[in-house]
Amino acid sequence: MSFPETRPRRLRRTPALRRMVRETTLAPDNFMFPLxxxxxxxxxxxxxxxxxxxxxxxDEVVREAEEVAKLGxxxxxxxxxxxxxxxxxxxxxxxxxxxxxxxxxxxxAVPDLVLAVDACFCEYTTHGHCGVVVEGAIDNDAxxxxxxxxxxxxxxxxxxxxxxxxxxxxFVGFLRESLDEENFDQVGLLAYSAKFASGYYGPFRTAVDSxxxxxxxxxxxxxxxxxxxxxxxxxxxxxxxxxxxxxxxALAYLDVIAEARSEFDVPIAAYNxxxxxxxxxxxxxxxxxxxxxxxxxxxxxxxxxxxxxxxxYHAKEAARLLGRR
Length: 325
Fold this sequence. Notes:
The protein is an alpha/beta fold. It has helices at about 15-20, 60-70, 100-110, 140-155, 170-180, 200-210, 230-240, 255-265, 275-285, 290-305, 315-325, and strands at about 30-35, 45, 55, 75-80, 115-120, 135, 135-140, 160-165, 190-195, 245-250, 270, 310.
């Protein structure tokens, strides 16, 4: 009876052997944790559409940031729920806005934590779109002007990274110039470079009350069918000065992440979005999956595709599990 000469199972025999030859590693260093900041004091309110995630007032978010740092997670990204909305989202660049207050408080309490801010207007506008609406459509260049105001406000409050997410043409170059002119050349840009018009954003829109009042965002977010266009968007942002580029969502776009990794020699981020998180939570609640195992498999798949940084609501849970290994 003949036997195979090559036996790959030899290196799978024990946990130590498997660790020794593991190709893809996952660590808390790879995570960026999203935080939702809301008006008020002493507020910690669970988000109905995202079990285990919360709205925090600026004072309470500091405690959450301290816990994140203790878990070894190097960065957070802040999303704001404004005290009031208007047609252009002016609360986004208000010097006393909820995000600005949170940035100052966190930077004072946890100075080594990297602070990123989502720079968009959908949470701040009465119509729920990501910029200035003129005759029923987004005015790209008018939106850039307001985006520059918001970015400067975040930089003054202590942001390390500004993350423009509205998919406006030229937003990276415009922000780079705006920040540099005001001597914020040290503030980096984490660009939502390939953000697809996805159905996976539903729980997030509930969390920040950003569902469009009319139409949809397909006129500025990307067609889910297109990968070559995504590479063009990524290339434009790299040329304009993006320090980190992002693919969003992650799981349905692993091929886009892999293509980006092969094409560009810059850090690649991927957003493991609200719908992807909520599906695992719902399946676990039904008893259909081993939540911890599927969560870690999911995050590993995003790393395996080529992401250096994973924005994920799982970050704290995953970091705790990794700390036990």
